[in-house]
Amino acid sequence: MVESQSLIGQLIQAVVNDRAEACRLLQAHPELFTTPWDLGQNALHFLTLEGTPSDVEFLLYQGFDPERRNDFGDTPLLDACVLEKTETAKVLLAYGADPNVGSEVRFNAIHCCVYDGNADLIDALISAGADPVYTTPFGETIFDQWPDCPRQQQAMKELVRRHQIERPEPE
Q: Where are the beta strands (DSSP E) in 59-113?
């Protein structure tokens, strides 16, 4: 396990600093695609949180699974949405990340973005097929988690209008 942890650290450093070395590591150690690190995260999770969109794209191009879940059930896309890493989320979506993904701790990707009013990220999720009127187990939709900032509220209103999203009727 210690060797695997060390290899993951080497891979992360190589992705950031020397992509040719990262390719050599992945070829020599294919287990790096699935080896968990801290809290079940793999290198893709880590670089989604700490790296750049190009770091994430490199790993996805190499074959990392955008649907890989950590110990909490979060995928890299959920992590990107929570941290409002819009460009990283767009890369993950381009490589097939599920825009409707949820986890044990988070309802779904859109709900991770609404309160902060990140209309650009929500637009990317909806354009990739996310359900814009997803309802949480508590009966909340995006209309119930509106951002506080007037500028963000306006961006959300424009998003709702552009995608013709209608508030669902209460059951």
A: none
